[in-house]
Amino acid sequence: MNADDRIERARTLYEHAVFGGDASVLADADRHLDAVEADVALARGRILHARFLTARATGESSPVEDPAELPLFERAIELYEALGDTRGHAEALFWIGCLHQVIRRDNETAVPYLERSRQMAARVGDTPTQAEALRHLGIAAHAAGRLDEARERLEESSRLRREEGALRGVAANMVGLAYVAAAQDRRADALATLDRADAIAQAHGAHAVVRQIQQARTQI
């Protein structure tokens, strides 16, 4: 059921209560509207996160975290948990982990959120969220010097993304895999991985990933 359907259902339930005299339906109306609110909170938080990433990519010296981002994700979790929506809960957990890792540079705080998100997403078959969590767990492992683990996490994320046809995400993961290969003194593998990533990114209009590949080539 999409947001429009839920809002229309809440309107219908309102009429049942007001004209039909059945106030018991209002709890169901609240649940529909809570689901809409949760989805909107998650979407708004993602947009704020995208603004941070865009500012960083365009060369701002120190992009600033929007103070509204974390409360939006926390509100989404509160609502999804009350609704028993495990899929939404897993996605919101991922975004909190991502915020701590990407914006606050705090992997110690991020990893438990990411791991719990991965587990919940796997339980309900939410492949996109599982792949996202695995990617960022791989990034955390790389930062901690656990290179084999980083490679394993990124490769599993890529496998799931290929299953979903999310090839731009595969290309982004390959950039991470190239950095891991370079850290393992496999420079030839790293450069070959970047070549394959570039072909995928160019073919699928992933211009931001192309820029990441160009940057990686200067560092590897």
Description:
38% of the residues are buried. By secondary structure, the chain is mostly helical. It contains 10 helices and no strands. The mean pLDDT is 95. Helix 1 (3-20) packs antiparallel against helix 2 (26-57), helix 2 (26-57) packs parallel to helix 4 (86-103) and helix 4 (86-103) packs antiparallel against helix 5 (107-123).
Topology:
Layout: H1 3-20, H2 26-57, H3 69-83, H4 86-103, H5 107-123, H6 127-143, H7 147-164, H8 167-183, H9 187-203, H10 207-219
Helix pairs in contact: 1-2, 2-3, 2-4, 3-4, 4-5, 4-6, 5-6, 6-7, 7-8, 8-9, 8-10, 9-10
Task: Summarize the model shown.
The chain has a domain at 166-220. The protein is 83% helix and 0% strand. The protein contains ten helices and no strands.
Order of helices and strands: HHHHHHHHHH
**Got a strand count?**
0
Outline type: elongated
Strand content: under 5%
What gyration radius follows from the Cα positions, in whole Å? 20 Å
Low-confidence stretches: none
Straight-line distance between termini: 47 Å
Helix content: over 70%
Supply the key terms.
220 residues, mainly alpha
